Amino acid sequence: MPGTAEGRCLAHLDEAALAAHLASLAPGAAVDHQGTRFSGALLQRLLARLTDPRTGHPRLGNADFQECCFTADARFAHAVFRGGARFTGATFMGLADFTHATFRGSCSFHRAVFLADASFPDAVFADGAVFGSAQFAKDAGFSRTDFHGSAGFTEAAFAASAHFGAAWFSGEACFREAAFRGDTLFGAAVLGGPAVFAGAVFHAAPALGPLVAAGSVNLTAARFLAPVALEIAARELVLAKTYWASAATLRLRYATVDLSDVVAERPLSIGAHPVPLLPPDEERRKEDRRRDESVLGGADPGVRIRSMHGADAAHLALTGTDLSGCLFTGALHLDRLGLEGRPSFARARGRRSGRQVLAEEHHWRAQQGERGWSPAPAGVAVQPPAVIAPLYLALRKSLEDGRNHPDAADFRYGEMEMRRRDATRPLKDRALLMAYWAVSGYALRLRRTLLWLVLAMTATVLTTALWGLPGTAPTAVARGGGVPGNFTLTSAPPADPTGPLRDRLTAHRLARSVPVALNAAVFRAPGQDLTVTGNYIDIASRMTEPVLLGLAVLSVRGRIKR
Questions:
Q1: What's the CA angle centered on 82, arms 80 and 88, to 5 degrees?
Q2: pLDDT band at 148, cuts 50/70/90?
């Protein structure tokens, strides 16, 4: 085998040849012992020859331990690997102790098997590390480990606890399709780059985080099979196609969240965390160890939901999140979505005082050329009103179930608007909705309704003064019945007013007309003798003004109801 003068495996050399080979080594030397079966004594003798007398710790150059088998504890604590370190396919039957080890070159533990504890706390990987397909049968300890460059744990299997508490990743941390069967601890871990957990399976992870990532955290198609609490501060959190078998709570900061195709069998709560997950540590700052939220560069700490396309919202609850850019098209059971706190949606025409609207309405109106509305981002299909109206209906029901009637009123308005704008609906239905909108804003616009009510009552007053009140007071006429003392009183029909119209608009006639309009609004008798035309005016008023008054009451109720 490589590494000996004889080309044979180090473990199979006789004592003389082994002693000669070890004598040729010095601290910092390169070693190549692929496939060697190391006993505890053999490894100890090898590391003793490589130990720097000034530090008392092993110092190696390029180190090749591929396919090696360490039958006893492998103690590389405080070792310095100055070149590449290759443990690909190695088997550690005892403790693998790399505490405070430093890997200055590339490092690979690809397909390595750790049958006992794997201990890497406070280790430093200066040029990345590869643990892809590694098998950890017992605890895997990477607490306070520094990963400079990428850290690859693709398809790694953690049968027991995986400890990454306070670890630092300067590049990508990839746990794609990894399996975590025990506790998964990333408390106070900070990533300068993205974190990829796509396809990972968490069998028993009661907590994940608090974890801070300067880039994105990708959990696409990850599966959580036990109750879990996630605390994550990241620029982006991708939860697309994730599966949640048990209750889960996500406390987030800074993140734009993708909830496309999420499936939750139990309550899944997502909320914005109000305070930093990792407060600044001044001592660490002095050591130039940026292990807090400062890696996010002072971005907006709020939480924004980007998409719920295809998600099952039956068990989903959102608290304090920004939904102004969220796409709800294709979501299931939206009427059961929990919207806690004060949900934040987009505003009509981008105005702060405008009604709350969905992003889909913004995109459709912008496509129609209406000014002040936001166009759809690249790659996002614009939905027609026939698709948007049911979204408003479902979300309105959700808000009403949460006793949030003022916000539900905005969504009722949006639903009616989309129905009115839907070209696939019958023309007569759209005409009726147009009238409903013009008169009262779907019984949700108080000022518009009051304006029409005032106009209707003003018209009643004017028309009554002009044509409804008789020109002269009706006179009573006594008619005898042929028997002394027996007579009846009859009144002559009110005479229509005559003369110029302007002469009829006197203060006296207007004052007499006002009660007619007021009484018509509440279905009371006019209290005045009216002409035939006046009676028709009164009937028309009784058909319109009470309706307008009722719509005004509904407008107020929709805003103040609790």
A1: 85
A2: very high
